[in-house]
Each structure stands twice: as structure tokens, then as C-alpha cells.
Amino acid sequence: MPQVPQTLDALAVRTWCGLALEALGRAREEIDAINVYPVADGDTGTNLYLTVESATAAVEAVFAGHETVADAGDGRASAGEGRPTLADAVRAMAHGALIGARGNSGTILAQLLRGMALVLAAGGESARTDAEALRLALRQAADSARDAVAHPVEGTVLTVASAAAEAAGGAEGDCGTVARAAYEGARAALVATPRQLAVLARAGVVDAGGRGLVAVLAALVETFTGESPRAGWALGEVHTRVAMAAGPVTEATADAGARPAPGVDAGHADPGCADDRPDDRPDDGGRAFEVIYLLEAQDTAVTRLRDRLDRLGDSLVVVGGDGLWNVHVHVDDAGAAVEAGVEAGRPHRIRITHFGLGDAHTAGAAGLPPRERAQRAVVAVVPGEGLAGLYAEAGATTVLARPGEPPASGELVDAVRRAHAREVVLLPNDADLRHTAAAAAEQARTEGVRVALIPTRSAVQGIAALAVHEPGRRFDEDVVAMTSAAGATRYAEVAVAERQSWTMAGICQAGDVLGLIEGDVAVIGADIAATAEAVIDRMLAAGGEMVTLVLGDEAPGAIAARLESRVRETYLAVDTVVYRGGRQGALLLIGVE
To answer: What is residue 185's three-state secondary structure?
Structure first.
């Protein structure tokens, strides 16, 4: 048997994320199928998977960044020097889950991971931690997730999380022992959920979010022991055990389910997949919309936002901290929910699902014919609001990728669905998104959509591809033309170094201006405009007919005029076009074709 860690370090976090993603991938359809509370929209398994996918991608990015720094050294790095600390890994995991959280279940899972990270990152640069810290982390996870929910109800994922923390708290031994105790406690609580929530008892199922958490905890056990607990355990056994434990399900036995699971404080309540009000509330037919967005705001503003959204709707979950929050609510007035976010701070990645009319995971409205599919569409990832507008004007369906927040494959699949076309051209516009885009394309193909992935590595290559897009010609011909235009466009960017590091152009210091051509640092300077001029000169030395400049919000106001003037005076046959990109990470994107 291969060696497995007995303490929690960065590598264990990486392993856990990967195993949890695999486990949720296997269980996704099963979990979707039992998603009945409070909205039977059949997406809890998918939402949990996408949330963990985002967390996993963030952890992998941290490892890749440290390995790159180590590789750029002098070859004398000691073992493990190219590896992040535990604090780096758990913070990345929590942040990735926060920005990628989907649905009520995913939002709660993100807060569970954030709660763990608050404890595990407290050691700072410590490389690893022990079983006691893991026990405390599981307790903090359960408590912080409960605090994030406006009106918890027992019998859902928080009940399962509380039971896991209670069981872990009484376990003696190493991390593997603590993880197994948490798993067993969660599994027992999951089987009991139908006795706590009438809608589950009536359907004869356990809570879907709790089932997903059990899968995540099973992955934690496997991380420390190398063995997956109860390898053959699946929903079929859960259903059998529910029937044996509960006997025939009646309204009386279902409503008696107000009793909390063993180890759960009856003074708390717990949300499931959506509505967190008591189950005996008047039946109003459910809310019309699910509204989710990321929000940049201060704590005091978020407190006021919670109160306002609580009056507007239900299923309210607000998670996060340190200025970045993920907001989830079910409302009848989606505009009012978004407006409340605007008043509190800066909402983005806004996602609105109409439960009646449907979107990625709901059926069409009764009596309305399905909307006719377009023949062809373009789906593109763009790094800023300005470019999102530009791409949208050209007819593309866009996915906004903010700095440090790369989209998950599920977001790209959703964009393909929104495009509602038989044929889709996918432009990832980032070399680091090639695997994510490939996974999204493969998923879309299983849904009957013909997808062509053009490996654009920058938004300026996407602009060139979109400029030659012609929906009226044959699909293959259009793809070839767009691929050729993108490939003929060299790309660069100007950015500011965040820390000292080795580069292809030498050692840079924090605050230096970097000119990157095709992903490699080619120029290190002190002045933004001068560095940009040097980059353009190098690129045009190989020829070119058009220079595209995309200015970020942080770029100096006069830089566009200066660069346009230099190109016009130095390269007489070369044209220049300028766009405003918004918050795109880089100060300036440059394309030469």
C-alpha cells in the first residue's frame, strides 16, 4: 500500500480535493435524483461537484505557482521548497470554493471549507498540523456554516456537518482516526434526515446535500488511510436503512422528525438544498427565482444586506469574509435582490435561475413551446467587463473571468446551454483554461451540441477569431478561418510584478513593470508606457499590419494616445485599434496580427 499522510499538510489538501471531486463525480447523478427539498430542481449533486471543482482548480494553481518559482531557481532548491504551505493550500481551497459555489448546497459547502481553513491556516507558515487541529477545524466548519444560514432547519446538510464535528470531537488517535469518526457520524446522521424533514420522509430519500458531504468526508478518510470507507456504499443501501429505521412513512412519523439527529443541538436548525424556513410554513408555491452573486463589500454592509434579503425571500445563505462574499437567495423579485447587492457593494458573477421557466437544470414552462435553437453561436471567456460588452455586441455569449477567479467547466457548459445553438465555437482565451474548456466541450457534446474548441490563449486572439466569424458558412470552414485568425495573432500583456522572482529576462522585484510576450517575460522596466513601447517594438520587428490595445482600469489615462502615436510615426503601414477592458488583471493586453 502506498504511503499516506498521518498529518494534514498541503499535499494532503491537494489529495483530498482530488478524491472529493472524483467521489462527487461518481455520485453526482444519484444526488441530483434525490434532490427534493425545498425545490426539486435536481441539481444538488451537480452544484456540489462544480463547487469542489473550483476549489480543486485553485489548489492546483497554488501548487503550479510554487513549482514554477522553484524551477526558475538555481537548481539547489531543497525537497519540498517548491510546495505551498498548509495555509496556502487551505486558503486557496476555501477561496476557490467561495468563487465557484453553486446553488444552496454548494454555498454551504464553501462555508464549511472556509471554516476549516480559518483553523488550519492559523499556524501560518507551519507545514502541517495534527489530529487536534483537524477536530477543531471540523467543529469550526459546522458552526460557521450554521451562522451563514438565515433560517436553518434540521434534517439537511448542516445536521450532517454538526454530527460529523461531534463524532470527530470524541475521537482519539491520528488524523485518519478523526476523519473516519467524522465520516461515520455524518453517515449515521444522514440516514436519520427523513425523520427530521417531512418532505424527505414523504419521498423516501435522505437529504441530497448531506449525501454529498458524506462523499466529501469519505474522500478525507481515503486521503489519510488510502482506503475508501464502505467502498460499495451507495444510495440503495441508504434507502434500505431508511425504511428499516423509520418503518412505513406516514404524515405522523414524518412530522415527528423535528427531533435532531444524535449529537445535534436541538436549539440549532439546518438548511438543506434551499428553503430554510420551518417545514410547517404556509405553502406559497415556492419562490420564482434563485439569485446568486459574488459581492465585494464590507462586513457592516453585508449585515444590512442579510436583513434586506431576508425580508425579500428565503433560502438565504451568505458566506465568505475579508471583503468577498457569496450570496444565495430565493426571491420573487430578482431585480430587487440584485439591487440590494449593488447598494451593499459590488456584485458580479450574477446568476439568476427562473424556477418556472427553467435554465440549465429546469424544465420549460408548461404550455410554452421550447425556444428554437440557433444554428451556430460563439462562447468566449473574457477577462473584463469592457471586453464582455465588446464580445456580446459581436454576438458572442460570454463568461466573465475576473483576476484570480477562473471559471470552472460547469460555467462554460452553462454558457453553451445559454447560447442555445446546435453548433458552438468555444474560445477559452487563456492557456491555463485549455483543460477546463476541453472538459466543458466534451460535456456539451454529450448533450447533442456540436462544439469546436479553438485554443485561443489571450482575449486579443479571441477578438481576431471573432472578427472573421461568419455564421452563414459551413461549420468546418468557419472554425478553420477563426483558428487561422487566432493563430496569426501574437499576444502580449503588461503587468506589475507582485513579488521578486526569476524570469526569462532576469530577476524582477515587486513593483517592476513586466512585458510578457506569448506568456514569457521579455521586458522588465520601471515605466508602464516605456515597457509597452518596448514590447510593441519587439513584436512588430517580425512584421504586422494591426496592433490591438486593450486597456485595463489601472492603465494610465494617456498611454493609449502615446502608443497610437508611436505606432503611427514608426510603423507607417500599421493600424491601431483601442478597447477598454475594465478590471482585467493586466494593465494592458496587446495583439499584433
So the answer is: helix
User: How many residues in the chain?
Assistant: 593
Question: Amino acid letter at 350?
Answer: I
Q: Determine contact, residues 86/127, Cβ cutoff 8 Å.
A: yes
Comparing C-alpha atoms, which of 471, 513, 517, 477 is closest to residue 493? 517
Q: How buried is residue 94: exposed, middle or buried, by Cβ count under 10 Å (0-12/13-18/19+)?
A: buried
pLDDT in tens, 209-263: 999 999 999 999 999 999 888 644 444 455 544 544 444 443 333 333 333 333 3
Kindly give, in sequence order, each residue whose CB lies less than 8 Å from that of residue 307, ignoring residues fewer than 6 positions away.
none
Mean residue pLDDT of the chain comes to 82
Report how far apart the first and last C-alpha atoms of the chain are (Å, whole number). 55
| Whether the Cβ atoms of residue 250 and residue 31 lie closer than 8 Å to each other | no
Distance from C-alpha of 111 to C-alpha of 104, rounded to nearest angstrom: 11
CA distance 516 to 535: 8
Find the helix or strand (DSSP H, E) in which 112 lies: helix 103-120
CA distances from 218 to 22, 67, 135, 161 (A): 11, 29, 16, 13
Under 8 Å between Cβ of 334 and 287: no
Share of the chain above pLDDT 90, in %: 48
Cβ 98 vs Cβ 110: under 8 Å: yes
User: If we measure between CA atoms, which residue out of 310, 382, 381, 309 comes closest to residue 342?
Assistant: 309
Q: How confident is the model at residue 100 (pLDDT cuts 50, 70, 90)?
A: confident
Q: Which residues contact 119 (CB under 8 A, 6 or more apart)?
A: 133, 136, 137, 140
pTM score over 0.70: no
DSSP 8-state class, residue 405: B
384 is written with which cell numbers? 473584463
The C-alpha cell at 86 is 498548509
* 317, β-bridge pairs: 149, 328
Distance CA 240, CA 245 (A): 9
The whole-angstrom separation of Cα 257 and Cα 415 is 40
How far apart (Å, rounded) are the C-alpha atoms in residues 422 and 242? 44
Task: Say which amino acid occupies 237.
Answer: E
